[in-house]
Specification:
With about 80 residues, the protein is α/β, with parallel strands linked by helices. Helices cover about 20% and strands about 30% of the residues. The protein has 2 helices and 5 strands, in the order E-H-E-H-E-E-E. Strands 2-1-5-3-4 form a 5-stranded mixed sheet, with helices on both faces. The radius of gyration is 12 Å and the shape is globular. The termini are close together.
Length: about 80
Amino acid sequence: MEKIILWNRSPQKLEPLITSLQETGREVSLASALDSAVRQADIITSATSALTPLIEGRWVQPGTHDYGNAALRIIVFRRRL
């Protein structure tokens, strides 16, 4: 992965993860809106305990890989350049 886009309802919780990922030399950014992050993604990885879907199908581009997980409250989006 060359570029990683992260989104969370509580963005401040992502700061340690962003710092850690940047130390690997990858481009990391924090998305302000979930829908724009999803629309940019080639790969979507989500982990949430939400009872309702956070991602709308119309946001996902054809050919995007979606790897869901319902264990944590963090949602990570990754995009290849």
